[in-house]
């Protein structure tokens, strides 16, 4: 039977009168039939569809290396792939570029393009943006999963100091790792609040004391509380620096620079108070100490380390530089125009408060931003009309960029929650797969598996990668292709 089939196959496929450019093939992808001609497919000979034309003379082995099934009578090739993605990919043969439809996962679409051997350069730039965003999300999920696995894994070959260093780092940097770590995080947060409150309360004249020279200074009790807070901050920073796996990156991190700026003024002012008097005049020392005390406001930024909301706000502002730049440009143009008009219109009044255009800038700023101190105001009818117009223009200019900035904040906040949930989902599936057929798995079992050794990126050969809807290629050396039966969330 096989020989008869082969002979029929060869009779049909080896007709010498038919040229490859004029050949017609039928491709069935997931139940959707498409007819192609050789002249279209040969434009890109390295693609899988173009190879189908040249594989007909190679027998069944050559054909089935390219497709899932083949009907020689109908000359129809069968593929168990995503038909929606395939409809987008075949546009390259007709238009020379590819666009993804909405609702298709970019990573799955990339895998489909790799299966059909179509280069990514044919993907339109707008679709490449979605693909890069999805890659960044998967990289972030992989990084979070790897960090959790690193915390679970303990390498027996490491020295006791290395293990102790990792424990200290996890204890201070990852409050979610244990209950004592959460207690330390809460204490650090309370010390920041107490230090900030003491700094503010110390400026109240009724709570200050007078020294021997008649100068006012902070109450000794408040000074002792601040010293205790600085001691806590110093100990925390030193321990984090010692236990840091990358000390250079730690030292130049923005939040760690803020920590140094919050601690350093205390020690510099203490040094100037005890040693500076011998090198310079006492008045100069006191001025330097006062200037350094102002730098203590930097410690309020330490709250960003313990507040995800502040971190999200910072990221949203970074992503909104374009909108903020437009806002500043609108306000700058409006300030210049309305201040010049206000100065010109108010020159006819004998008691005008607009002495010059630069002085009018201040009036335009407080008017357009709806502050309105009232220290400078127009007195003529035209000046008041100009002030009303500037006020309305300021409200519009400020309101326009607010919506994109809020969108950036909400998008980043929701994205962080989704990534956190996806990372936990991957860990749960990895734990279930590592049970080797068991229906459930526990966290303790995952910890035991992770301690068996570091044979792979998961520290254990038994800890298998997950094949979930958010499959992460970065966590596996093997390459997996999705079929149309698998979806991606």
UniProtKB/TrEMBL annotation:
What are the Potassium channel tetramerisation-type BTB domain coordinates in residue numbering?
25-126
Output the SUPFAM superfamilies linked to this UniProt entry. POZ domain, Voltage-gated potassium channels
Chief location: membrane
Name of the protein in its database record: Voltage-gated potassium channel regulatory subunit KCNF1
- Give the species: Onychorhynchus coronatus (Royal flycatcher)
Q: What membrane topology was assigned to this protein in its record?
A: Multi-pass membrane protein
Q: Please spell out the taxonomic lineage of the organism that makes this protein.
A: Eukaryota, Metazoa, Chordata, Craniata, Vertebrata
Q: Pinpoint the Ion transport domain residues.
A: 182-416
Alphabetically list the UniProt keywords.
Answer: Cell membrane, Coiled coil, Ion channel, Ion transport, Membrane, Potassium, Potassium channel, Potassium transport, Transmembrane, Transmembrane helix, Transport, Voltage-gated channel
């Amino acid at each position: 039977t096989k020989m008869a089939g082969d002979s029929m196959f060869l009779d049909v496929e080896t007709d010498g009168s038919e040229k490859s450019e004029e050949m017609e093939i039928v491709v069935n992808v997931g139940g959707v039939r498409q007819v192609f001609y050789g002249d279209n497919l040969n434009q890109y000979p390295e693609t899988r569809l173009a190879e189908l034309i040249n594989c007909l003379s190679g027998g069944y082995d050559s054909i089935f290396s390219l497709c899932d099934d083949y009907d020689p009578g109908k000359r129809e090739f069968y593929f168990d792939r995503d038909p929606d993605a395939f409809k987008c990919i075949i546009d390259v043969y007709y238009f020379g570029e590819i666009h993804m439809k909405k609702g298709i996962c970019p990573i799955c679409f990339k895998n489909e393009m790799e299966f059909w051997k179509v280069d990514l350069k044919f993907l339109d730039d707008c679709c490449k943006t979605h693909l890069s965003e999805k890659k960044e999300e998967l990289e972030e999920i992989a990084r979070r999963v790897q960090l959790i696995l690193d915390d679970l894994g303990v390498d027996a070959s490491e020295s006791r100091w290395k293990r102790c260093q990792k424990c200290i780092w996890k204890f201070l940097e990852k409050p979610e790792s244990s209950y004592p770590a959460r207690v330390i995080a809460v204490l650090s947060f309370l010390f920041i609040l107490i230090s900030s409150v003491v700094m503010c309360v110390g400026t109240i004249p009724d709570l200050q004391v007078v020294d021997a020279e008649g100068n006012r200074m902070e109450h000794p009790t408040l000074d002792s509380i601040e010293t205790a807070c600085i001691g806590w901050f110093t100990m925390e920073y030193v321990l984090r620096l010692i236990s840091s796996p990358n000390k250079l990156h730690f030292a130049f991190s923005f939040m760690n620079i803020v920590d140094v700026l919050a601690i350093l003024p205390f020690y510099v002012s203490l040094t100037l108070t005890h040693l500076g008097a011998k090198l310079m005049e006492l008045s100069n020392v006191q001025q330097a100490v006062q200037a350094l005390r102002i730098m203590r406001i930097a410690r309020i930024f330490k709250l960003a380390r313990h507040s995800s909301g502040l971190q999200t706000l910072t990221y949203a502002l970074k992503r909104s530089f374009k909108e903020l730049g437009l806002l500043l440009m609108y306000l700058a143009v409006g300030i210049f125009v309305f201040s010049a008009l206000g100065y010109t219109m108010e020159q006819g009044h004998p008691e005008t408060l607009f002495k010059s255009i630069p002085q009018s800038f201040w009036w335009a700023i407080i008017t357009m931003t709806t502050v309105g101190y009232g220290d400078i105001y127009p007195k003529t009818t035209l000046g008041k009309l100009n002030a009303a117009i500037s006020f309305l223009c300021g409200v519009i200019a400020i309101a326009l960029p607010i919506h994109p900035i809020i969108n950036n904040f909400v998008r980043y906040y929701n994205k962080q929650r989704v990534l956190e949930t996806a990372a936990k989902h991957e860990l749960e599936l990895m734990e279930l797969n590592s049970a080797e057929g068991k229906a459930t798995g526990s966290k303790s079992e995952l910890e035991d598996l992770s301690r068996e050794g570091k044979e792979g990126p998961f520290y254990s050969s038994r800890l298998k990668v997950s094949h979930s809807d958010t499959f992460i290629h970065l966590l596996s050396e093997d390459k997996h292709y999705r079929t149309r039966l698998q979806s991606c969330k």
